[in-house]
Amino acid sequence: MFQIDPRLAGDSLEVTSLTLCQVLLLNDRRYDWLVLVPRREGVTEVLDLSPQDQVQLWREVTLVAQVLRNAHPDCKLNIGALGNVVRQLHLHVLLRQEGDPAWPGPVWGHSPREPYAAEAGHAAAELWRMQLEQEAQA
Predict the structure, then answer these.
(1) What pTM, to 2 d.p., does this model score?
(2) Pick from 4, 32, 89, 107: CA 20 to 30 A from residue 22's CA?
């Protein structure tokens, strides 16, 4: 049975489910940062997915990336799949801008997260959910 790694679940808010992936909002108010987790048990690398799932994963990464870029077209889009701490396959799709706390270096491990206030986090997750649904229907 598929379950999101507890560390991912603890660091994020649920946004929506796509065909393959669960989409999460990283709970750090400093960044527009979504995480895609393929709902496949025991998968740690993209290579572990079936060829069909690999294609679907990139479709969903593209969808999420387009939604983020539409929201802030002047920002730099970053996509990454590290997996050094959380081995469960997950892809980070986030926006960066000059002057953000980690600029120009990587955001991973730069500084402690700054979580959303509860209401603000739920509102942000809901906003991304609505934008993903709109883009998927376009």
Answers:
(1) 0.96
(2) 107
